[in-house]
Amino acid sequence: MTVSETGTVLITGPTRGLGRAATLAMADRPDGERPDLLLVGRAGKALTEVADEARARGATVHEVGCDLSRLADVRAAAATARALLDAGAVRPLRALVANAGQMSADTRVASADGYEMTFAVNYLAHTQLIGDLLGSFTAPARVVLLGSNTYHANIYRRILGVPAAKWRDPVDIARAGTGEKNPGLKSTGVAYSNAKLAILYYAHELQRHAGPGINVSVFEPGWMPGTALGRGAPRAIRTVGRGLARLPGVATPERSGPALASVALDDTWANLRDGEFVVIDKVREVRPVAQDRDRERRLWAATAQLLERAGTPSDAC
Fold first, then answer.
1. How far apart are CA 177 and CA 140, in angstroms?
2. Per the structure, how many domains does the chain have?
3. Which domain CATH number covers 206?
4. Contact status, residue 252 vs residue 224, Cβ threshold 8 Å
5. Is residue 206 part of a domain?
6. How far is the CA of 115 from the CAs of 15, 30, 37, 120, in angstroms?
7. Residue 31: which domain range?
8. Among candidates 180, 127, 115, which has minimal Cα distance to 310?
């Protein structure tokens, strides 16, 4: 039996690339296995189009407009999702897929709440959303976070010039850069890799705090250059990425999207927990740097501090 038989999946970033492919893969499930869908993304044509396409494939779909760079928007989206669940407009919440991501071209750019944009969208927005919805899950339930091997800059990321994470206190990581000049490709890449390392740390700590029956995992879609994620990245990364995307063997939304849907829904993955790291369709061990209890505790506490500064603290921090 799959989670989708009785449940709802909330997914962020459903309008492009991996998120769109995963959304439509879930909508394509047979009757009895197809989940209801809460699609959280920027309001507009792209969100409407993917929602309409999912409905045409048989899914019950609700669009939830949300700018993930604004934590007030994230809190409002969580409130909308809770209202739909409480009203019985959708079935019980069984999975949340924190798919949305961004790679800012300039680490001086701040979110509406004053945080470095890459960290704000990839990490803080999802901690707020998950925390606000943690009490709304019906077990068995799953939280699937989007990770990346950029945290240690494997060979493919080194080809793209994306450096490994350089961890420091999370409050400092969240601070937007300063200075008159763009800090450059290296700083941008470190910001992205730090956000992805933070997701691994958060996944481990979230599992310790989540209620019974909520399993937390991290999904890496594989090396997928040239996708919409990099639209805010420096031009050099976008240009190289478009060329490398044509090489045989690289991951694509068409392959990795259904794999992400499977991790959220299928019995094959029912026992994934403790932030286990899935690369497309295989569980992989993370590097030692991604397992650090002291960093995980500090990140949890700092996240609560950062969210409180921006408004209402999250229950999951």
1. 41
2. 1
3. 3.40.50.720
4. yes
5. yes
6. 24, 42, 30, 6
7. 3-309
8. 115
